[in-house]
């Protein structure tokens, strides 16, 4: 699959660490104030990041030292926004156009919250209005000591309509404090934000905060992406539902787990290979942990078992993988087990498995690449030798 295009006029998208994306708001000459195209682009960026298999954590920050964002560019909105575009429309059509405009704006900012990957906000300097809208969508918020926050909309004659009034009360901060800062539009600083729980940490500088965010992103990226993304999903669901509903949701979500407590990994990827950016053969579930070695070559995939038995759950999951392979690898047409021709799935059904814990299963595959799941035993080079006897036999 081709990598998404992350080129935008007012955003820099970089990758400071493997599987960690960094989104920088880039309009520093205007204190990173948002024009309409910027929030449209922001929504597009987070929708792409949500489904990008190479991304496991996201950092949201901004260019420059003065501001994370000063909010909406009010002058640009008054000249080119929905109100200006409907200036000569009748009241009903104008109201309809503005309502649609607000809903589109809300949807683009909500893309941050809907992103399947955890999002870390790093705030600094001026962080007004839209800064609160955006960062209440984030999973983790940290800031530099110079950060100044404000829910500014009351001072420009509006109720905040892009998310602050609905998300800030659910950010585990006191409701009295929420109402005070929203009704008065007063500024509050980093220490106050930390005290009430709006941010989880304050750092001396933007650079220090950003460094911590990259470190945190790297830690998140090192963990099971399925587990991390499922945890985010359940936490967000439970925030808006009853305890009973949340418990039921996690039971449904976790029901396909394997018997050793490992959730199926993303299709076609093994966690150990994934950490080094390596693609795996078409077996993306944790049954791979039941084998000493997996080698994908131009003719076959070799699976050499460990001297333990896989349970029926592993067998069923692996059977499903064989019957529903990706386009990239094609459909296994036959298999050998103990020197005997069998259908790929029969090799894992009952007696063919029993008593053959040191045998190998061979599945044809067109992928001309050799991959070792346990890099501590073998290198990735097709010409390398393996010290382990069973691995040498597999070669």
Automatic annotation (TrEMBL):
Residues 376-395 have a biased composition (Polar residues). It holds the Pfam family ECH_1. GO terms for molecular function: delta(3,5)-delta(2,4)-dienoyl-CoA isomerase activity. CDD domains: crotonase-like. It comes from the Eukaryota. One of its GO terms (biological process) is fatty acid beta-oxidation. Pathway: Lipid metabolism; fatty acid beta-oxidation. InterPro entries: ClpP/crotonase-like_dom_sf, Ech1-like, Enoyl-CoA_hydra/iso, Enoyl-CoA_hydra_C. Residues 373-395 are annotated as: Disordered. This is Uncharacterized protein.
